[in-house]
Amino acid sequence: MNFASFEPVIIFTLLNVVMALGLYITALSGQLSMATAAIAGVGGYGSAVLTVKFAWPFLPSVVLAALAAAIVGAFLALVTLKMRDFILKLTTLAFGEALAVLAFNWDYIGGANSFTGIGLKTTIWTALAATAIALYIAWRFDGSRLGLASRAVRDDPVAASAMGVPIARMRTITFALGGALVGMGGAIQAHYMLVISPHDLGFFVSLNFIIFLLFGGLQTLWGPVLGAVLLTALPEVLRFTNEYRLILYGLIIVLVVLLRPDGLLTRTPTGRAIRILGFTLVKARPVAARAAEMSAQPLPSYLLTRQAAE
Amino acid sequence: MELFLQQLANGLVIGSTYAVVAIGFALAFTVLRVINFAHPDIFMVGMFAGLAATAQWPALGLLVTLLAGAAGAGLVGFALERMVIAPLRGRDVLMTLIGTLGVAIVLQNGMALIVGPDPVAYPSLLPRRFIDIGPVALTLRQVANFAICLLLLGLVSLYVRATSYGRATRAIAERPDVAAAFGVNVARICQITILLASMMAGLAAVSVGMLYGSASAFVGLLYGLKAFICMLVAGNRYFEGVMVVALAIGIIEALVTGYLSSSLRDAAAFFVLIGVLYFRPNGLFGSYNT
What we know:
The complex is a heterodimer of chains A (310) and B (290).
Chain A: H1 7-28, H2 36-53, H3 58-79, H4 85-105, H5 124-143, H6 145-155, H7 157-162, H8 167-193, H9 203-216, H10 222-237, H11 245-259, E1 274-276, E2 279-282, H12 287-296, H13 306-309
Helix pairs in contact in A: 1-5, 1-8, 1-9, 1-10, 2-3, 2-4, 2-8, 3-8, 5-6, 5-8, 6-8, 9-10
Chain B: H1 2-32, H2 39-56, H3 62-85, H4 93-115, E1 120-121, E2 130-133, E3 136-139, H5 140-162, H6 164-174, H7 176-181, H8 186-212, E4 214-215, H9 220-234, H10 239-259, H11 265-279
Antiparallel strand pairs in B: 1-4, 2-3
């Protein structure tokens, strides 16, 4: 077993985890962006231009590229603020394709011939560091007031708004923060692929990330991680099946969608029963017991309003 | 002027094919609330079903090839509805999108496994002849393709507007719950809709195969994205609107190819999409609330 031959798979898996987490944060306020690949492309092209045309070092150019992606993400959120659900998704799709067309026709960044000559800067440690950063950010955001507020916007915008949650600001924050992570992943990926082309920004690449999320499950942050890891590694693991590889890949996606429509990882705050072959090994705890348990604990500080804290 | 008219005619021919695939998309989306990503690949299956039929019975000619294309596509479409779309009814739009996308991956790569990944030759079945209409010269196959697609579009329009099933279809598109309360068999109409859309795609696929003289397992991608755009630009309230937009996009593409460059051809449809969605987010002719 040669470790080096697995390096590309591991790096791509890690970077896909980073970008899937970015999309998870974006989706936390209720809207799945269909322009993920385009925002990753903003990061990729941005960092490529900075390092090649301006001879910037790797790290600052990745940071600046992630910032640029965050700004583009925030812009996308502001454009789509007043739109209804389905039209919003379509607009993000069209936005992504528009960026791809822009990249295709802009000769400064290579146009149709792709941007080539990017230096190889990404190692497995860079990818690991990026994954750690993304996981930390996603985990902290998930449990923070902002995370709870954006979930409230997702579950019921009207009720959230009535409780004083600023919907527009939450959307913009989630799109910007998610865009930053996606842009960071895209920038680091560009320094591993060494070439970035307008086709990398297209709808079908974006669709991959949506599949990661829905496959793994949107209810926890570990769902997208699992989805990205499984679906990036799966075609490689299935390599021994040769030409049946992609057919099996498709079948597995269909089966998961049919058998676990909420994704592989779901969440039952009340605990769930474990049954094997009709025998109940662990009983599900009744909701009342769980509620009593929870109300016995002190509230975490971020749930307290200012007056209650004082 | 002559170039203009010629490209106009070429655009109408290719646009009519987009229209047939786009109508299939639009039917599935309005009636079943499903973005059927497997639809372009059902189109592809129809193409190869027709090819298999002519290879098996070369003497029987065009009609049997067309019927075989419709039958093959219809079969796959029906199975898709029963096995994947129906169990996911009422779920999020994206969930069925991913499910049908999985089916599309299976169909594409399954077909590539059978016929190989490269394009294969498609028999023409029609004599190689030019037909002059004024200053415009079209091949017989182009005319046949246009005629077949136009006939299909006319029949769909008739079906939706003038039959009781068509009225039920429109009722479900408007309000599925109310339609069900008034005794419309929603599940049955859904099956019929997908079957119809698939068979139409199969017929058009055979005609497109003859037009270009080649068939490939990955042909669906091209038509799928264009058809999807046509549906979005038109909105799904009027199927005739989708047809008009598809013809218009075909013409725009042909004109862009003729006057600007062929590399801008695929971008043209997206420019139209972004422009229209900006000014009319529900499409040119309006959409049902979905």
